Amino acid sequence: MNQSNDLNRKTIEKMFQIICYIWLLVLLKDLDFSSAEPHNKQLTIFVEAGRQECFYQPIASSENIKIDYQVIHGGLGEIHINFNFMDPSRHLLINEIKEEKGKHILVANETGSHKICFDNTISSFNQKIVSFTLEVTAADREEQELRNLRREMLTDYQFDVAYTGIDNYMGKIQVNLMRSRQTQDFIRALEARDRNVAESTYAMVNNWSWAQFLSMIFVGLLQVLMVRSIFHTNGTFYKFWKCF
Q1: Which residues cross the membrane (predicted)?
Q2: Total count of domains within the chain
């Protein structure tokens, strides 16, 4: 009976130690590993006709770069733009001409300020609205060092495996939430483009209707004047028609 009680007590103590380890690692993750989160930047910009807009982003060597962009409004159906991406030495890494959208994934070969440019010099009158996302994630080498640090802090191999599974699952949830937010932002951008197209179409139809209405009034008045001049024999228009 005493042996059974001792076994139950040891089991409870082991479970308590495991729970304490879990809380400790969660606190360590919040304090030390927040720098491993990816850097994301999303902007919607206006590029005037005949000009280009450039942005600079410091990126370390061997970091992963992902760029997504899309022209959501161009005016008169011109939804394309030139896109350039340059390294700190200003070597051209990406050069696209008259593209509506693009998606690129590459690895930085040099540490420094990278240059992103949207060139609208191809248009003389049309302003462009561009939505783009820049995502910079840590290099594989840094991730490997982070995993080694975690492994050194753990003393129980089984607990290490359990923590790694939980950490990977949390990382997948974070990535999926980030992708969902980017998808929602692109949907809002498309809705803004459709709204701009609808408003411009409405304005064009409205102006054309006014022009037709004024033309009808002018033609009606001209016809009345011509008919009256036929029967008014003393008028100037009647003498004019008599010449023919």
Answers
A1: 210-231
A2: 2
In total, the chain counts a number of residues equal to: 244
210, two tokens: 């006014």
Which of the four pLDDT bands, split at 50, 70 and 90, describes residue 69?
very high
Q: In this structure, which amino acid lies at residue 84? A: N
63/131 same-domain check: yes
- Evaluate the CA torsion angle 88, 89, 94, 97 in order and state its sign: positive
- Cβ neighbours of residue 95 closer than 8 Å, sequence gap 6 or more: 83, 84, 85
Q: Which of 106, 139, 172 is the last residue of a domain?
A: 139
Residue pLDDT, tens place only, 162-183: 667 787 888 888 888 888 888 8
- 3-class secondary-structure state, position 75: coil
Which amino acid is it at 127? Q
**Mapping DSSP to helix (H, G, I), strand (E, B) and coil, where does residue 85 land?**
strand
- Cα dihedral 218, 220, 224, 230 in deg (nearest 10): 90
Find the domain containing 27 and state its range. Answer: 1-32
145 pLDDT higher than 60: yes
Residue 37 has pLDDT above 60, yes or no: no
Buried b (16+ CB within 10 A) or exposed e, 112-144: eebbbebbbeebeebebbbbbbbbbbbeeeeee
Reported as half-sphere exposure (CB side, CA atoms, 13 A), residue 90 has a value of 1
Q: Which helix (H) or strand (E) holds 105?
A: strand 101-107
Let me know: does 83 contact 45? Beta carbons within 8 Å: no
DSSP string, 159-222: HHHHHHHHHHHHHHHHHHHHHHHHHHHHHHHHHHHHHHHHHHHHHHHHHHHHHHHHHHHHHHHH
